[in-house]
């Protein structure tokens, strides 16, 4: 079942080839984008400034992050619905569902110390005390010169979050009249959210995320539907096979599997001819090119 579309803009028609990396895995000379999943989140706490800065230093072509909204309407960058896995701090502020907290409450949460606890071999003192970033701050820091791959979270329950994201991108010159839409990709598991976003920003490339394998009898029809509004698909790595890649390419769609962290798996999807790869380890993926 299609749940959303993920796109690698670097290799899209009309976008700069320099955004991609040459890959020779499997004996072909082509371009594959390195997409830093929540930053260099293997080596640093996910969705933090230090993680994205490190991803750029490791050669990532795109910085990927998830967009959510607080109870008082502030767009923030965070993955889980719940704060419990990565947030440390006062329970009333830093546990439970993110969308039940205000922006002021979230600023009392440490989202770096968990990484040091979970990965002592990669721990660093500077990770302790890192905060959840507001989307505006992320766009201000990276929008001028980085390529940004944004995922709309909770788009079924909060359909207007797509418009909130569009307005934020307009504020930072990344959508709307005169914007360089070649540096932004928007992905979601919710086709309706992507359709709504496309209505406001038809020039922004969209990616449909895909979780479940699509039966062969429905594959061509499903991908043809996706090609009507998106530039690519972001399938889970476990369902990414030659059949899917070939069928997507036949419909003119890019293929960006997620999330690929082991070298053997990276080599496998590269041999399939994918156009980009989501990874927590951009340095390792880059080393294979």
SSE pattern, N- to C-terminal: EEEHEEHHHHEHEHEHEHEHEH
Q: Structural class of the secondary structure composition?
A: alpha/beta
Low-confidence stretches: 1-19
**Count of alpha/pi helices:** 11
Helix content: 25-40%
Q: Secondary-structure blueprint of this entry?
A:
Layout: E1 2-5, E2 21-23, E3 30-37, H1 49-57, E4 62-69, E5 75-77, H2 91-94, H3 103-106, H4 113-118, H5 135-142, E6 148-152, H6 161-171, E7 184-188, H7 191-200, E8 206-210, H8 216-227, E9 232-235, H9 242-250, E10 254-255, H10 263-272, E11 276-279, H11 282-287
Parallel strand pairs: 3-4, 3-11, 4-6, 6-7, 7-8, 8-9, 9-10
Antiparallel strand pairs: 1-8, 2-3, 4-5
Q: Could you characterize the architecture of this molecule?
A:
By secondary structure, this protein is an alpha/beta fold. The chain has one domain: Phosphatidylinositol (PI) phosphodiesterase (TIM Barrel). 31% of the residues lie in helices and 18% in strands. It is built from 11 helices and 11 strands. Strands 1, 2, 3, 4, 5, 6, 7, 8, 9, 10 and 11 form an 11-stranded mixed beta sheet that branches. β9 (232-235), α9 (242-250) and β10 form a beta-alpha-beta unit. It starts with a strand and ends with a helix. The model is unreliable at 1-19 (pLDDT under 50).
């Amino acid at each position: 079942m299609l749940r959303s579309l993920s796109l690698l803009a670097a290799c899209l028609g009309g976008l700069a080839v320099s955004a991609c990396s040459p890959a020779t895995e499997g004996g072909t000379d082509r371009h594959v984008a390195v997409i830093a999943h929540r930053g260099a989140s293997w080596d640093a706490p996910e969705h933090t400034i230090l993680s994205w800065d490190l991803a750029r230093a490791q050669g990532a072509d795109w910085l990927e992050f998830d967009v959510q909204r607080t109870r008082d309407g502030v767009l923030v960058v965070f993955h889980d619905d719940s704060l419990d896995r990565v947030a440390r701090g006062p329970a009333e502020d830093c546990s439970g569902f993110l969308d039940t907290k205000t922006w002021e409450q979230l600023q009392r949460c440490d989202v770096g110390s968990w990484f040091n606890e979970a990965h002592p071999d990669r721990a660093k003192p500077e990770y302790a005390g890192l905060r959840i970033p507001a989307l505006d701050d992320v766009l201000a820091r990276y929008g001028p010169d980085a390529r940004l791959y944004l995922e709309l979270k909770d788009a079924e329950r909060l359909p207007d979050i797509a418009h909130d994201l569009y307005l934020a991108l307009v504020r930072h010159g990344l959508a709307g009249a005169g914007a360089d839409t070649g540096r932004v990709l928007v992905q979601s598991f919710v086709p309706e959210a992507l359709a709504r976003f496309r209505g406001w920003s038809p020039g922004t490339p969209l990616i449909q995320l895909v979780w479940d394998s699509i039966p062969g009898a429905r594959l061509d029809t499903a991908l043809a539907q996706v090609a009507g509004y998106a530039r690519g698909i972001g399938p889970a790595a476990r369902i990414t096979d030659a059949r899917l890649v070939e069928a997507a390419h036949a419909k003119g769609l890019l293929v960006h599997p997620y999330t690929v962290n082991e070298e053997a798996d990276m080599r496998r999807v590269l041999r399939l001819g994918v156009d980009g790869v989501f990874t927590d380890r951009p340095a390792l993926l880059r080393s294979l090119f």
